[in-house]
Specification:
33% helix, 2 domains, alpha+beta, 7-stranded antiparallel β-sheet, 9 helices
Amino acid sequence: MLDFSEAILSKLAIHQVGNKSNDEGIIISEQEVVVDGSIATLLTTYFTKPFKPQEFYNFSHESSLNLNEVFTYVKNIFNDKTSLQLQSINLAKHLYEQSNHPQIKSGELYVAYFDNCYLNDELTEVVGIFKSEQKETFLKVFPEGKSFTVNRDDGININKLDKGCLVFNENAEGGYKVLLVDNTNKGDNAQYWKEFFLNVKPFEDTFYHTKNYLQMCKDFAMEAFPEADKIDQMSLIQESAKFFKEEDAFDKIQFHEKVLQEPEIIDAFEDYKGNYQERNDIQVYDEFDINSDAVKNMKRVFKSVIKLDKNFHVYVHGNRNYIKKGFDEESNMNFYQLFFKEES
């Protein structure tokens, strides 16, 4: 659980970071921003509201964790929060060096320090790193005598955080616990925030294990048996989702017995799992506690929809025996039969 209801935004630095490939440069602020009262509350909500306590990350580096720039700068802030201004400058320079994709937009970089934060009911401090890129047009209406005047202005929508990360002062030796948000960039240019600037990897907790196994089950159903009946694929996906929803802990043997059942499917699944781990460079475990948030989060992946040309979508939610596929020779077309007791 993540709780910022009593959080105090005690320090804040802001800099302007441009696109390096366009030689836009950076504008460094000489001192921290003094925030208090309603502005501090507003900024705290703007910075923290988009984050959900689901998939955590750790700072990483292929050689040594201490060579990860953001990890080092944040660690220095946690050790001495009066160094936030200096370390924020280092962060701005590091972000600029990574902003070399032509589609990366310039924007304000915020480095904040929060006291009185709670993670899983444990009191902790948080360093937040955020970037605003999108500007929106706002109308301002002012009374003027017995009438009104309307002006326009460009600013930041406080309900839309573009990019951000929260670093919790926990597990320092393992690269801290980090939450991410990136709502603006997709594809190759999205790598610069998560991979090039922050250089993080998923934190291997119950959310990580649950998410990976569910994704693997879905991929197995769709990839390993492309020649199988679509209904059988959907049935395997549904049974996998049902198992994770009903069980508190994952056990490979139980999963084999309740979901896969057939020996040839079990063997095929185990072979696929080995290749899946190597291909995706992840470790899939045979026993772990199931994370209910990860199960809910994966619902969108497990949508059981059969798309028929551009005419129909068949949503399969229940017993696969109530839907059958056939071929009509007269029309030379495939068809599905649906069996039901009541119509609503």
